[in-house]
Amino acid sequence: MAATSLVLRNAVVQIQSALASAKTITGISKVSEAVVTATHDYSAGDYVLIYDVVGMTQINNRVVRVKSVSTTVSFVCEGLVSTNWTTYSSAGSCKKITFGTSFDNITQLDLPDSAPDEIDITSIHDDERTIVFGHASAQKGTLSLIANPLATAVVEVQTADLAAERRAFLVTLSSGQKALFNAYCSGGAGFSGGVGAAGTAQISLTLRNKPQWFSS
Predict the structure, then answer these.
(1) What is the pLDDT of residues 29-43, one digit of tens each?
(2) Alpha-carbon distances, residue 137 vs 99, 109, 164, 181 (angstroms)
(3) What tens digit of pLDDT does each residue of 164-206 get?
(4) Please, which residues have CB within 8 angstroms of residue 37's CB and are 6 or more apart in sequence?
(5) Which of 65, 97, 198, 207 is the most exposed place for a label (fewest CB within 10 A)?
């Protein structure tokens, strides 16, 4: 069987355009798919931002997809493993995300994996270097663009940059696979160009966490 390829053809890249009113979180479970307790009006397939949680801080500023709901009192975060995270203590809010703005000028999307920080603990008594891993580095990415600083999606990036706020991104491939992530973003207003060539620009991304992938 041939391997499935990630082909960036007819890809759709959307950026968060709005957040709904906040819902108060009163609990989050430590299971293979985190269950968030909150009075809500969400439906399966909705995308939600979670923040200001005390205790289970690993979930803060993540964007999740709702797998299922239990009436209006809780929802399951699809594929989000919380088993080894710290225990929820109190507080937290969640907001439904609207992906109402799409890019139409991306020429390349780069989201390379990050590596942990390397800490050199070599002593004068060692005959070779000794390295231990520290904190994981933030994953960084780049959107290469055909320059258009007035494009709606690019303006949204500039707005987020000025406010030093993150924005959620949703990438949908022609295969139906989806990548979801939350990131600080900047750029898009500058450009590079010359005779006989289209102007180009770049948007820099610093992700809150690794993209979460869905098969559809």
Answers:
(1) 999 999 999 999 999
(2) 27, 20, 19, 16
(3) 999 999 999 999 999 999 999 999 999 898 888 889 999 999 9
(4) 25, 26, 27, 28, 73, 74
(5) 198
Could you give the count of Cα atoms lying within 13 Å of 106 in the half-sphere of its Cβ?
20
Are the C-beta atoms of residues 167 and 156 closer than 8 Å to each other? Answer: yes
